[in-house]
Amino acid sequence: MIVNPYLMFNGNCAEAFKFYEKALGAKIEAIMPFEGSPASSTVPADWSDKVLHASMLVGETRVMASDAPPGHYAQPQGISVSLSLQDPAKGEEIFNALSENGQVQMPYQPTFWAAGFGMCVDRFGIPWMVNVEQAGAHGSA
What we know:
Blueprint: E1 6-9, H1 13-24, E2 27-33, E3 51-58, E4 61-67, E5 81-85, H2 88-99, E6 103-109, E7 114-121, E8 127-133
Parallel strand pairs: 1-4, 5-8
Antiparallel strand pairs: 2-3, 3-4, 6-7, 7-8
């Protein structure tokens, strides 16, 4: 079994994926707009360029997403996308990129379980946790 996050956006999925590609070193695999698909009739005409489905690789994990049709978007609550890294400096760099123009919930800093950990909600409304394991730690948060 494989578990993949599927993120919903409020009309800015393509912009978010391009940002994540740069900030996370991700690789966009596909961005499919509503236009030209059988689903094009389910959204207003001005949404034809919005994303019906997108996919990217973040490390070895596939993250998928789409723009929620008008009136169906809800801000994510009770869930975060968690990134586990080995390099504290890289963790801080990624955290700073994700939190720019977003909301820091817990500043990136060493904790009793991690060489670096921080929580934020990015400018697109997606909650993130960045965790860098301590040397010799087994498992991740």
